[in-house]
Specification:
With 301 residues, the protein is α/β, with parallel strands linked by helices. It has helices at 12-21, 33-46, 75-84, 107-111, 140-149, 151-155, 161-175, 182-204, 224-236, 266-283, 294-300, and strands at residues 3-7, 24-28, 58-63, 88-92, 120-124, 134-137, 216-222, 242-244, 254-259. It has 11 helices and 9 strands.
Length: 301
């Protein structure tokens, strides 16, 4: 039997895939390296249930950027633990490829980790690439196995030529080999938008999750009624938002999820902040104790 060790806040699609794999699943606390090492060490010592035989393979599964939390995985430490216990590592880069790193190469570039240290790298073409489908990067044996054994590979249809062309064009732009510099400009713009929006939300006293560089920005409302009310009030003011509640989050972990884009202008972000300020008195969203007197600061300017 094989063992799959999953971060407790992995996306529902990863959880479903883990269950369908038939492997034994153990969970470690979100981004907690001590707990990850405790889980993997205990599993290796105890072996498989009943027989106590050694595990055939141990696979650690994490996300580059957690889609509901905005946090990034602690990749260098995870790689160190993986190597120490001779395990394998699967990284879902759906939200990090094209968004993190100086040249948009994802969480590996952001942390200075060589992609060869990751056994399986998975990503999607539906976000940074503006297309459809996804990819798996691994060694030749893994790819050959997926081609012959994967249900999705066997029963899926090929990508349409326009989608393939869009992916190739996006890759050339991000890598800077199209000769325009547009890819680098967008990566820089995305980083600036993310930093500005996160900084302003914190200033105003909203509680947000994730690192300062993460383009996924969850704003905590905690209450389900508040998050539903926020969506209605925001839409009435011309702002469409993604709201998330139970069971995708804990019962008291409802949130509004903003995903930054290089296409967002500073004016659009400032208008979004103004709408938030307009809605806040109705719902009481400023729950952080570390908030500044924004109105006084604004009037001084």
């Amino acid at each position: 039997g094989c063992l799959l060790i999953s971060d407790e806040l992995n996306h529902a699609s990863l959880i479903l895939g883990a269950r369908l794999s038939g492997a034994k699943i153990k969970v470690f606390k979100h981004n907690n390296m001590k707990d990850l090492e405790r889980v993997i060490r205990t599993a290796i010592v105890e072996g498989q249930p009943r027989t106590r035989r050694p595990w055939k393979k141990v696979l650690i599964v994490v996300e580059g950027v957690y889609s509901m939390e905005g946090t990034t995985c602690n990749l260098p430490e995870i790689v160190a633990i993986k190597n120490k216990y001779k395990a394998y590592l699967y990284v879902d880069e759906a939200h990090s490829i094209g968004a993190l790193g100086a040249t948009g190469r994802g969480v590996c570039e952001a942390y200075g980790v060589h992609p060869r240290d990751i056994d399986i790298l998975m990503g999607t073409f539906s976000k940074s690439f503006g297309a459809a489908g996804g990819y798996i990067a691994a060694d030749k044996d893994v790819i050959a196995h997926l081609r012959t054994e994967s249900h999705a590979q066997t029963y899926a249809t090929s990508m349409s030529p326009p989608v393939c062309r869009q992916i190739l064009a996006s890759m050339k732009s991000i890598m800077g080999i199209d000769g325009t510099g547009e890819g680098q400009r967008r990566i820089k713009q995305l980083a600036e938008n993310t930093k500005f929006f996160r900084t302003e939300l914190k200033k105003r006293g909203y509680i947000i999750f994730g690192e300062q560089t993460s383009p996924v920005v969850p704003l905590l409302t905690f209450s389900i009624s508040k998050v539903c009310g926020f969506a209605k009030e925001a839409l009435a003011r011309g702002l469409a938002t993604v709201i998330v509640g139970f069971p995708a989050t804990p019962l008291l972990g409802s949130r509004v999820r903003f995903c930054m884009s290089a296409s967002h202008t500073r004016e659009q972000l400032e208008k979004t902040l103004d709408i938030l300020e307009d809605i806040e008195p109705l719902l009481g969203l400023k729950l952080s104790s570390k908030r500044y007197n924004y109105k006084n600061t604004k009037s001084k300017k």
